[in-house]
Each structure stands twice: as C-alpha cells, then as structure tokens.
Amino acid sequence: MTNYLVNRLFGALLTVWVTTLAVCFLIHLVPGDPVQIMYAQSATTTPEQLDLIRHNLGLDRSIIHQYVIYMSNLLQGDFGTTIRGQQKVLDLILLRLPYTLWLTITALIISLIIGGVAGFFAAYKQGQWLDRLLMSSTIIGISIPPFWLGLMLLAFFSVNLGWFPVAGDGWLSLILPATTLAACQAATIGRIVRSTMIDIFDQDYIRTAYAKGLSKPRVLGRHALRSGMVPIISILGMQFAYMMGGAIVVEYIFSWNGLGRLAIQAIFQRDYPLIQGFILTFSFIVVLVSVLMDVLYAVLDPRISRK
Amino acid sequence: MKAIKTILITLACITTVATSAKVFSADDIIWARYGDIDTLDPHRSTSTLSMQVWNQIYEPLLARDSEGNIGPNLAKSYSVSGDGLTVSFALNDNIKCHDGSEFTSKDVIFTYERAFSTSNPSNTKSAWGPIKDVKANGELAVEFTFNTPFGAFIPFMADPFASMICDSNEKLGKSYGTTAAVGTGAWKLDNWVKGDKIELSRNDSYINLGRLADNKGAPKMKRLIIKVMPEGQARLAALQTGEVHIAEPPLESVDTVKSNPKLDLFMADNTGQDVFFEFAISRPPFNDVRARQAVAYAIDPDMALDIVFEGLVTREYCTVAQGVMGNDPDFCKSVGYKYNPEKAKELLAELGYSVSKRLEVNMMTWTGGNREKLLQVFQSQLKQVGIDAKIEVMDIGSLNARVKQENNITEGPGSFDLMGWSWYDPDILYQLWHSPGAYEGYNTPELDVLLDKTRSTTDPKKRLAVVQQVQKYLIEQAVHVPLYTPGWMWLYGINKNTTGLKFEPFNQPIFLDVTIK
Amino acid sequence: MANELHEPQNTNSYFWAALGVLDSTIKWLVKRRFLFFLGLLTTILVALSLSANHWVPFDPEQMAAGPRLKPPSSSHWFGTDEFGRDIFSRIMVGMRLTLQVGFVSVCISLSIGMTVGLVAGYFGGWLERLLMRAMDVLFSFTEILIALALVAVLGPSLENAMIAIGIAAVPFYARVCYGAVLVERNKPYTEAAISIGAGHARIIFYHLLPNVLPTMIVVSTIGLSNAILAASGLSYLGLGAQPPSPEWGAMLAASKNYFQRAPSLLFIPGLSIMTIVLIFNLLGDQLRQMLDYNDQGKHS
Lengths: 307, 517, 300
Known about the structure:
The structure holds three protein chains of three kinds. Chain A is mainly alpha-helical. Chain A contains 13 helices and no strands. The radius of gyration of chain A is 24 Å and the shape is globular. Chain C is mainly α. Chain C has one domain: Orthogonal Bundle (MetI-like fold). Chain C contains twelve helices and no strands. The C terminus of chain C is likely disordered. Chains A and C meet through α1, α6, α7, α10 and α11 of A and α5, α6, α10, α11 and α12 of C.
C-alpha cells in the first residue's frame, strides 16, 4: 500500500514540477517580444520601464536563471501581478476558484446520479427496450456539443421563459451550467456503469446470494452496488478533470464567475501572468483530485493495497 | 463514497451561505456598464468608462448647464484678462475634500503641477493649453498665465479630465488611482473591485455649486454601485428583473426595451463622439496617402451602418462630431470620400497591390457597441478590392496603448484602427494631430501651424475658418476618416421606478436627484 | 488433348472466382449494412464538402445576399444571418472546414502518438518508462488546457487551433497504441520474427504496425469527433476560426445576440456539428464492434 502511495505521490509531484517548467517557458512560444506584447496593455510604460520588467522577469538572463527566479517567487506565494489592473494573480485566482469548484462538483454529483441510475437500470434490463433506449441516448449525449447545449438551455430557459437568471452568483444561476456540464458526462458514466454492472451481475457470488435466498433489493443494493462502485471511483479522477475542462467553456456561456471565465478573459487580454497562474492552479487541482481518488481506490480495493 | 458525498455537500453548503448573502440594499442605485474603468486617476486614462466615474468622485472648477454654457462650480467666478494671457479663478469657500481637509488653491496648484509633471505628465496634458505659470493669490484665488491666448481653456475647466484632485492624495502614494481616491464630488469611493464593480457612497457634506441638478446638497440615495457586465444579454435581463436600475441595453434589443412597460429608453444626443479610422503611418503601406485613401474609397459606411446599427446612429462626415463647433456636414461631405471600389483598386495598383497580389493588414477596435460586427462588414468590403484585413478587438485601455505602439514600430503588416473620441470643442483635433499627438502618429509641420492657429485665434468666425482648413487637410490626407456618431454608451435603459437621472452635455450622467421607488 | 481440357476451365475459374469475391463482399455489406450506410454517408459528405465552393447557391461571405435574420425560406434554405449572408452556403462551406480540422488534428495526434506508442512498446526499458511517464504528465494536463495554452501563446486562428488540438490529444493516442503494441509484442509471431533475426525497423513496420492499425483506426474515428467538438468549441470562444470564416462554432457564437429574432441561427450550426460528430461516433462504434467480433469471436 505504501509503495503504491509513494509511487502515486511521486508521479503527482513530477507532474506539478513539469507544469511549472512548461508554464515558465510558455512565454517563449509567443511570437514576437513577449514583454512588449504584455505591456501593450498598459497605457504608461516607457522603454526604460520595459527593460526593467524584462530584467525582473529574468528574460535577459539564461534560461536556468529565469526558472530559478520564477520558482522562488512561486514558492513564496507570488504568482505575479496581472497586467490589466495590477492585481496579485494568486488573490484573483483564489477569489474565483471556489465558484469553479462549486460548479464542477455539483455537475459531477448530478452526472454520477443520472449516469449511475441510468447505467444500472440499463444493465439490469440488459437487451430489453430500456437498455437499448438508454444506450442510444448516450451516443447522442456524447455527440452534443456542450457549448451548444448550454446556449440552447440559456436561450430557452433563461431568455425565453425567464425561469433562471441570465447571469448571477447563487444556486439558481448554477442549475443551468451544472446541467450542461453534467449532461455530456452522464452519458459516459452511464456506459461505464452499465458495462461494469453487466460484468458483476454475471459473477458467481451474485448467483450465490440469490441461491441463499436473499431478496432482490438486498442482493442488488448490498452486493452488486458496493463492488460496482469501486471501478467507478477509478475513473472519477479523470471525469473530474474533464469536467474542469468543460467548466471553462460553460462558465463563459453562463457568465459564471469562476476561474474558467477569468482564464478566457486573460487569454483575450494577453495577460500572461494570469494565464500562467491559471494553468498552474488548474493542473494542481486536477492532480490533487486524481491522487485523492487513487488513494480512495486503494483503500477500497484491497487487491491494490496488497501489491 | 459516503464520506466523499458528505464532504462535498458540506463544502457546497458553506459556499452557498457565503455567497448568497444579499449585498445590495434598497438605498442603492445600481448602474451596469459593459466595461470597467482603467483607473481612478483622471490623469492616467482617456476612456469614457473612466470619465463617467471620475465625474462622480471629483469636481472640476467649472460646470456646464443643459445648453452647454459654462458656469461656476468649485470656482464661483472667473475672469480673462484683455490680452487673453491671464485667467483668474475665485474659489468657493467651505468646500471639503472627502477626507475632511479643506479644498483650497493648494489643491488646484497640486492638480496642475501633477498634470504637467515632467516624469509622469497627464494623458491629457495638452488639453490644458500653453500654460506658462500658475500661482495662488491666497487660499481662495488662483491665476493661470499663458504663453499665447487659448480659447479652449475655459471649456476644458468644466471637463472631467480637469477634475480637481485634492492634494491629500499625494500621501496615498501608489494606492492613489488604484485603491483609493479623494475628491470633492457627490460620491465617495468605498471600494473598487477590478473587473467587477465600483462602490461609491454618498458624500454627506456635499454642496452642489453648479452641477446639473435641482438638488443643491448631498445625493438622495445612499450608495451608487457601478457594475461591470460585459454581456449585453445579461445587462438586459438584469434590467428586466429589476436587479439593475440603469444599464446600456444591447443594440439588438433596443426594441425589447422600448416595448417593456417597466423600462424607459434614453438616447443621449450631441454626445460629441466621433468614430473614425486612423492609420499607423510609421511603415508601409499606410505611410503612403494612397493606401489610406484606398481604404477610404473601398468602404461603404452607409451600408455597413445600416446593417449593424439599423438606424440607431448617424453617418458622420466631419472630424468633429455633431453638436461641436466646426461640424458642417455639407462642407465635410464635399471634401470626403464616396464609396468607390474601382478608385480604391486603382490606388492599390499604383502601390503594387491587386486582387491577386493582396494587401494584408491588421484592423483593430475596442470591445462593445457592435464595433466588431461593423469591422466584419468593412472586412468584407475591403476584401473585394484586394485588402485582407485581420480583425483584432481589445478593451479600450489596451487599444489606446496598442495604437501608440503600432505608430512606433517600423516593421510588420500595416495596421489601422477604428477609434472614437468625444470632445466638446474642435481642440480635440489639436490633441490628436499636433505633434507629438495623443497616439504619436501622423503629424506634419504644415498641420502643426494650422492647429496652432486654431488655438490662438479668438475671433469665432476666423477660428471656424481655420478649423475647417484643418478638417479639409485631415480628410484629404485620409489620416482621420470620419464614420459615425454617437459611438458608445449613448443608450440607457432605465427602470421606471428610477427617477431624477439627468445628463450633463457630452454624456455625463448626474445622480444627485435620483430616487428609487 | 490436354490443352483442350485446360483452356475452357481457366477462363471459367477466374470468372467464378471473381463472382465468389463479389458474392461474399455483398453478403458482408448486407450483414454490416449500418456500417456500409455510415461509410457511404461519410463519403458523400466528404465529396460534397470538398466541392462545396462550386455548387453552393450563394457566396458564403457575401453580405446582404438577402434580407437579414430571415428564417428558412425557398430562396434561402437555412435562412440568413445578421449580415444577410446565406446560412445554407455557409454551412456547406463550413463543413469542409470542420472535416479538415478534424482530419488534420487526428493526423497530427496519430503520427506523433503512434510513434511514441510503438517506440515505447517495442523497445521497452528506460525509454518505455520515460515516454509513458511523459505521456502521463501530458495526460493530466487535460486536452482543453493544452489547447487553450497553445492558442493563448500562438494567437487565435484555425490553424493554431488544429495544431493545439492535435498535440493535446497525443497522450491518448500514444497510450492506446502502446497498449496495443504490448498485446502484439506478446504474440507468437513477434517472437518468431525476432528469432529469425529480423531488424527493429522490419518488425515495427512490417509486423507490429499493421496489426495495431485496426485498433488505431477505430480510436481515430472517435478521436475525429472529439477533435471536431474541440475545434468548434475553441472557435465558439473566438480562439479558433476568425471572421469571416463560416466555421460552425464561430457561427454559433454570433447567434447569442439573436435568440429571439432568429432562432435558426442557433439551431442549424449546432445541429450540423452534432450530426457530423454523431456520424463519426456511430462509425467508430460499428468499427469497434466489428473488431471485437474479429478478435474474440463474439459480439460485444
């Protein structure tokens, strides 16, 4: 178990480290002079000030030196300052991160419930009309462009019917974006749950449980479900990552005040410090959740811990 | 699984409670706009978005009435010497800055010296004119001496760019303009959450000495919240639900606002806004007048404006907008460019370009106001003559900086931009086109001489003649190609429960009389 | 005498052999009729889109081709957009862009991903560990982040979006290829090839690659639909196709302001994207089923 954990932790740290490398040098991919482009956004910088900025960012020194400066700042909690508005990047990110997490987690829960229930019943009634109906709707589900679905929900329920606010901060404004995010992932989860459950229903121990005389709900609820959960956990980390990615576009459509919307604005404004901070934070969260899920999986599946 | 669920639900509950607390109360005026201010410092920006907010926090020495006549404000009177070289102001007594300190001639001198500082002058320094010296005659009198007479000085003293900055702002150091600002205006700065909102609260010791309002004292409402809502549909929805009292509706939804019984639509006229094309002249192709003229001939502004604005704006032929001295549509039309793609192609051919050997350029503008759509129409018109224009849209602060940058680089594809300026006097032409110029762009010695004359000529008829000469020069050289007016923020959707909103000339809202039922 | 007996039989047997092949092909097509139908549909769509510029009724970029924001009518089958451009023409020309973007991205991901997968799977050792670790790291970035980051620095354009999506999907293709190579590596024919002294290149290109290819093709079809979704998403945000390009995602972005006045602006581009993506998803699904059948002798 410890071996496994250490392995995972090492992998996670490696990923985070490579992220810092990538983010630090991302700025070199910019065609042209990055400092000039960055500070084109700031109305009052003289060439002397630009040179000073270049020096502070270490761009006039060797690559190693740049990275050292960048990392030392990072470890002190200095993610840099935004170009527009001169705010501390870390402050801005921490302000908006909870909204994104709120959206993603809600959507994840919704998709788990819908996908789980649908997949379960599809497996239970395998081959029958319910199964076929649910499975064909999942193919449609993964084919719908999520931004189109979001736009249509917005147009119909917010603008047309007025049931939900067009923009806002509370639970009511969360419903549509969360539904959009959940819809596309629910299809994937449904398929996975279905195939997992089909395998489990086939297993000997289920048949034994029935033979013992246990009632259907008991068999399904206690035995099937419990062992079915474990494979789901293993993909949960990946689902979370996909959702975080999907949240970026969904936040933009619904004017949801999260990190994704901030990132899009940053990209349009060429606010590189903010973009760098966003990439770092996003990666870090995804890696963190992924490690947590792996740990949970190891705890729940004794086969892993015994390795 | 259960454990995760519990943790997640708790997290969600905490976040809900933390964020759903109602932040706005019934004594607030809530105004939503498409963008944010650049800064709280009147010397560091030129955007209307910023100006409208400065006008709440600060006061200028003079003010305009509804006809545009200049009258007293912080200064109770002024006098201009016979030779026009000295202007004296007598200040009102008992004016307090937001931090309690007295407003005196020291603050006026502080504002002037700050605008003229050699290390970091004001962005609108040239609008002050050729000032030689400023001195105080006691606590309540200030005297400005000029090198040459400058007629546009008095109107400038009524403008938000000439807002009086209390000298107590000096000790704020770097936080002045970014997190703090002290003025003498009707509203005090509480908080500026960048990109989100500005919270102002009533200045209880405010006395209205000349602003356009019946109320002679502090505002009736307690707070003024100015929110940033870039999405037009979101602003419209907020107006319809009553979440916001005043907002600019998206242009496509103007009819929706008009037909809504709970909303009023207000269209500010004579905003002084002129939207035009200008070019980066530091490099080919636009260092050649023929390339600029080719663009002017290639576009069909009437068709473009009709498609994009559906009658909500007016075609502007002059470099100074409707309502400003010098605006004469017939004259400007006679020296201007008519839609003529064949002529455009001829000019381009002279430069070596054709429909097969295409000219690639960058075309920029700032966000909002359907300007990107407008550029798309122009892009398709330019394509017909062989010009491939790539569209770039950015916020106004970025555009201002970028245009300056483009005027200084000597390599790269040609660049031109759709720019807008609003000013109450043709002196704007001096600010834009007299060397060094607001964007360090086009200037020539002949133009400088003409522009100097627009400042030094005091006789109105003679001045008008010189202004027309300047306009002719600019238009013939195709460095300032006028397109339309108004250009931004002239539409207001106002909730019927909000009464008393007034607009000073040139699109400056005043909230002193506002009450909300 | 021997000659007389041979000749008639020779010509006859070629004829019967050809007939036999035709017969089994038709039987196969009928059995796999859904797959056949999808394949035919795809071919038709590709042909239509490649020739789109020639047969569409209006110039997709011509403004004021008709009155603005009109619903579908006999003169404008899909209606007109906010500039008066014919939507049907734009959709058809846009289809070429959509397919092009998907195809190019997948080519990029496939070529890089398969290289990594083949090398890692075949050579093993430290190279395998290094490459797969690298893929893990890249994978945890999530595709959209990589794509966004690349477009952020390179600048918004359809070409950059294609490259960004192509690179972002590499870990996925690499992993699948790697897994498939591992399976093939353990099969007897690989051992046999090694034991007769075949060189690395020969084994990789002549033995491994052809056997890994079917899996990769299935994965590519699904990957194609993902690439199309990603590209339209980026264009929707304004980070992909730039105006006046008739790319479907960009068309959706413009529709946001006209919900009530012109709903067709919102439905049609989105429906088009969904249709193409659905076709490729179904195609991939059918191919996968066929593959499973071939490999394990049972339907899945």
